[in-house]
Amino acid sequence: MSADCVFCKITLHQIPAKIVWENAQVVAFQDINPQAPVHMVLVPKTHIARIIDLTESNAFVVKDLIFAANELAKTLKIADGGYRLVINCNSAGGQTVYHLHLHLLGGRQMHWPPG
Length: 115
Hints:
alpha+beta, about 120 residues, HIT family, subunit A
């Protein structure tokens, strides 16, 4: 955990968030600036700043995020219609919080390219 990381604080329930799903590895909460009718942020409880910082020993967190996103998509009833998973890396990639996280977007038709 990182003492100054907002997502670490959310996973520890130290600051409020609209948490919609949680297990031993992942916390999912509503994005504060939603880009779709369903826009959840999934955060591993293990602090890794960026996806480029993954190693052989911590790459399991990506599996945990994707499996959690799939379960949440089923729970939110967007799995059959379709959804998008997004991981941003560094500022030019759109990352604003430096704790690896995955965006789950759905509830509308997604377009390509995303922007």
